[in-house]
Amino acid sequence: MRHPSSESLALLAGEDLSMMEAIPVRWHLRGCSICRGELEAASRSILVMRTAVMELPEGLDWDSLAAEMRGNINVGLEASQAISSFSKSDSKSDSKSDFRTDRSMFDWRPAVAVFAIAVVTVMGWFLNTQRADHINNPSILLEANSQGIEWKQGNTALAFRTRSEEGSFVTVDTKGVASSRYVDSETGQVAITNVYVD
Questions:
Q1: Spatial distance between the Cα atoms of 143 and 195, rounded to a whole number of angstroms
Q2: How far apart are alpha carbons 49 and 103 in whole angstroms?
Protein backbone atom coordinates (compact mmCIF):
# COMPACT_ATOMS: atom_id res chain seq x y z
CA MET A 1 0.00 0.00 0.00
CA ARG A 2 1.38 3.38 -1.02
CA HIS A 3 0.84 6.09 1.59
CA PRO A 4 0.32 9.78 0.69
CA SER A 5 3.18 12.13 1.58
CA SER A 6 3.26 14.05 4.86
CA GLU A 7 3.01 17.27 2.87
CA SER A 8 -0.23 16.10 1.23
CA LEU A 9 -1.71 15.18 4.61
CA ALA A 10 -0.68 18.55 6.11
CA LEU A 11 -2.18 20.42 3.14
CA LEU A 12 -5.39 18.38 3.50
CA ALA A 13 -5.54 19.20 7.21
CA GLY A 14 -5.19 22.90 6.43
CA GLU A 15 -7.74 22.62 3.60
CA ASP A 16 -5.10 23.77 1.11
CA LEU A 17 -4.95 20.63 -1.04
CA SER A 18 -6.64 20.97 -4.41
CA MET A 19 -9.83 19.01 -4.98
CA MET A 20 -8.25 16.75 -7.60
CA GLU A 21 -5.30 15.94 -5.33
CA ALA A 22 -7.53 15.49 -2.27
CA ILE A 23 -9.71 12.74 -3.82
CA PRO A 24 -7.06 9.97 -3.82
CA VAL A 25 -5.77 11.04 -0.39
CA ARG A 26 -9.26 10.87 1.15
CA TRP A 27 -9.87 7.53 -0.53
CA HIS A 28 -6.66 6.21 1.03
CA LEU A 29 -7.63 7.57 4.48
CA ARG A 30 -10.78 5.40 4.49
CA GLY A 31 -8.68 2.27 4.80
CA CYS A 32 -5.44 3.42 6.50
CA SER A 33 -5.42 4.14 10.24
CA ILE A 34 -1.74 5.22 10.20
CA CYS A 35 -2.42 8.04 7.75
CA ARG A 36 -5.61 9.00 9.61
CA GLY A 37 -3.51 9.38 12.77
CA GLU A 38 -0.98 11.56 10.94
CA LEU A 39 -3.83 13.68 9.55
CA GLU A 40 -5.28 14.14 13.06
CA ALA A 41 -1.82 15.18 14.36
CA ALA A 42 -1.48 17.72 11.54
CA SER A 43 -4.99 19.03 12.28
CA ARG A 44 -4.09 19.46 15.98
CA SER A 45 -0.90 21.34 15.03
CA ILE A 46 -2.88 23.64 12.79
CA LEU A 47 -5.38 24.25 15.60
CA VAL A 48 -2.54 25.11 18.01
CA MET A 49 -1.02 27.53 15.47
CA ARG A 50 -4.36 29.19 14.81
CA THR A 51 -4.90 29.60 18.54
CA ALA A 52 -1.43 31.12 18.89
CA VAL A 53 -2.18 33.52 16.06
CA MET A 54 -5.30 34.67 17.88
CA GLU A 55 -3.12 35.60 20.87
CA LEU A 56 -0.95 38.02 18.89
CA PRO A 57 -0.93 41.59 20.19
CA GLU A 58 -3.77 43.86 19.23
CA GLY A 59 -3.10 46.49 16.63
CA LEU A 60 -0.93 44.16 14.56
CA ASP A 61 -1.62 45.11 10.95
CA TRP A 62 -1.49 41.94 8.86
CA ASP A 63 -1.98 43.86 5.62
CA SER A 64 1.14 45.99 6.16
CA LEU A 65 3.13 42.91 7.20
CA ALA A 66 1.98 41.05 4.09
CA ALA A 67 2.90 44.02 1.89
CA GLU A 68 6.34 44.22 3.53
CA MET A 69 6.89 40.49 3.00
CA ARG A 70 5.86 40.75 -0.66
CA GLY A 71 8.27 43.68 -1.06
CA ASN A 72 11.11 41.70 0.50
CA ILE A 73 10.37 38.73 -1.73
CA ASN A 74 10.35 40.96 -4.83
CA VAL A 75 13.65 42.58 -3.81
CA GLY A 76 15.16 39.12 -3.34
CA LEU A 77 13.93 37.97 -6.76
CA GLU A 78 15.25 41.08 -8.49
CA ALA A 79 18.62 40.74 -6.75
CA SER A 80 18.80 37.11 -7.82
CA GLN A 81 18.08 38.05 -11.44
CA ALA A 82 20.66 40.84 -11.36
CA ILE A 83 23.30 38.52 -9.96
CA SER A 84 22.53 35.79 -12.49
CA SER A 85 22.66 38.25 -15.43
CA PHE A 86 25.91 39.71 -14.05
CA SER A 87 27.49 36.29 -13.76
CA LYS A 88 26.38 35.44 -17.31
CA SER A 89 28.02 38.59 -18.69
CA ASP A 90 31.22 37.79 -16.74
CA SER A 91 31.33 34.28 -18.17
CA LYS A 92 30.95 35.71 -21.69
CA SER A 93 33.81 38.17 -21.16
CA ASP A 94 36.03 35.43 -19.71
CA SER A 95 35.45 33.12 -22.65
CA LYS A 96 38.27 32.69 -25.13
CA SER A 97 36.04 33.33 -28.16
CA ASP A 98 36.90 36.34 -30.28
CA PHE A 99 34.23 39.07 -30.17
CA ARG A 100 34.15 39.21 -33.98
CA THR A 101 32.94 35.62 -34.18
CA ASP A 102 30.10 36.10 -31.69
CA ARG A 103 27.03 36.35 -33.93
CA SER A 104 24.74 37.53 -31.13
CA MET A 105 26.61 40.87 -30.99
CA PHE A 106 25.61 41.88 -34.51
CA ASP A 107 22.10 42.56 -35.66
CA TRP A 108 21.36 42.01 -39.36
CA ARG A 109 18.57 44.60 -39.62
CA PRO A 110 20.80 47.72 -39.83
CA ALA A 111 22.85 46.04 -42.57
CA VAL A 112 19.67 45.31 -44.56
CA ALA A 113 18.50 48.91 -44.12
CA VAL A 114 21.83 50.31 -45.35
CA PHE A 115 21.78 47.92 -48.32
CA ALA A 116 18.20 48.95 -49.23
CA ILE A 117 19.10 52.65 -49.07
CA ALA A 118 22.15 52.01 -51.26
CA VAL A 119 20.04 50.16 -53.85
CA VAL A 120 17.43 52.94 -53.96
CA THR A 121 20.15 55.59 -54.30
CA VAL A 122 21.93 53.75 -57.14
CA MET A 123 18.65 53.09 -58.97
CA GLY A 124 17.59 56.73 -58.61
CA TRP A 125 20.92 57.94 -59.95
CA PHE A 126 20.82 55.43 -62.83
CA LEU A 127 17.25 56.32 -63.84
CA ASN A 128 17.97 60.03 -63.58
CA THR A 129 21.06 59.82 -65.81
CA GLN A 130 19.17 57.71 -68.36
CA ARG A 131 16.40 60.32 -68.47
CA ALA A 132 18.94 63.11 -68.86
CA ASP A 133 20.37 61.38 -71.95
CA HIS A 134 16.97 61.64 -73.67
CA ILE A 135 16.54 65.26 -72.70
CA ASN A 136 19.85 66.22 -74.24
CA ASN A 137 18.61 64.94 -77.57
CA PRO A 138 18.90 68.06 -79.78
CA SER A 139 16.28 66.84 -82.25
CA ILE A 140 13.46 67.37 -79.72
CA LEU A 141 12.31 70.89 -78.91
CA LEU A 142 9.82 71.58 -76.17
CA GLU A 143 8.45 75.13 -76.19
CA ALA A 144 6.11 76.56 -73.58
CA ASN A 145 4.46 79.99 -73.54
CA SER A 146 1.30 81.60 -72.18
CA GLN A 147 -0.80 80.10 -74.98
CA GLY A 148 0.19 76.47 -74.24
CA ILE A 149 2.86 73.90 -74.98
CA GLU A 150 4.39 72.94 -78.33
CA TRP A 151 6.50 69.87 -78.99
CA LYS A 152 8.67 69.78 -82.14
CA GLN A 153 10.83 67.09 -83.66
CA GLY A 154 12.23 67.76 -87.10
CA ASN A 155 9.31 68.75 -89.39
CA THR A 156 6.68 67.38 -86.98
CA ALA A 157 4.99 69.50 -84.31
CA LEU A 158 2.30 68.93 -81.73
CA ALA A 159 0.72 71.88 -79.92
CA PHE A 160 -1.53 72.02 -76.88
CA ARG A 161 -3.23 75.43 -76.86
CA THR A 162 -5.59 76.95 -74.32
CA ARG A 163 -8.92 78.59 -75.09
CA SER A 164 -8.43 81.12 -72.34
CA GLU A 165 -7.88 84.77 -73.26
CA GLU A 166 -5.99 85.37 -70.05
CA GLY A 167 -3.36 82.75 -70.94
CA SER A 168 -2.20 79.87 -68.83
CA PHE A 169 0.31 79.21 -66.12
CA VAL A 170 3.21 77.24 -67.63
CA THR A 171 6.06 75.41 -65.84
CA VAL A 172 9.03 73.61 -67.36
CA ASP A 173 11.54 71.56 -65.42
CA THR A 174 14.96 70.15 -66.26
CA LYS A 175 13.72 66.58 -66.49
CA GLY A 176 11.82 67.17 -69.68
CA VAL A 177 8.36 67.93 -68.31
CA ALA A 178 6.30 70.92 -69.42
CA SER A 179 3.01 71.63 -67.70
CA SER A 180 0.26 74.09 -68.60
CA ARG A 181 -2.64 74.98 -66.29
CA TYR A 182 -5.53 77.33 -66.94
CA VAL A 183 -9.05 77.98 -65.71
CA ASP A 184 -11.85 78.10 -68.29
CA SER A 185 -13.67 81.36 -67.59
CA GLU A 186 -16.99 80.03 -68.96
CA THR A 187 -17.23 76.75 -67.07
CA GLY A 188 -14.82 77.34 -64.17
CA GLN A 189 -13.08 74.05 -64.89
CA VAL A 190 -9.34 73.67 -64.54
CA ALA A 191 -7.46 72.17 -67.49
CA ILE A 192 -4.01 70.70 -66.89
CA THR A 193 -1.75 69.56 -69.74
CA ASN A 194 1.55 67.76 -69.08
CA VAL A 195 4.04 66.87 -71.79
CA TYR A 196 6.91 64.48 -71.02
CA VAL A 197 9.95 64.20 -73.24
CA ASP A 198 11.37 60.65 -73.36
A1: 10
A2: 57
130 in any annotated domain: no
Expressed as residue numbers, the domain containing 38 is 6-54
- Under a CB-based contact definition with an 8 Å cutoff, are residues 170 and 149 in contact? yes
Tally of structural domains, the chain: 2
Q: Cα–Cα distance between 25 and 39 in angstroms, integer?
A: 10
d(CA 154, CA 6): 107
Main-chain phi, psi angles of 49, to 5 degrees: -65, -40
Q: What is the pTM of this model?
A: 0.30
Give φ, ψ of 160 to 5 degrees. -115, 105
Task: Give residue-wise pLDDT tens across range 52-109.
Answer: 767 766 777 778 888 888 888 888 888 888 888 766 655 555 554 444 555 555 677 8
In a domain, 135, yes or no: no
Residues in the chain: 198
In whole angstroms, give the CA distance from residue 71 to residue 88: 26
Structural domain contains residue 23: yes
Closest CA to 5 of 13, 152, 95: 13
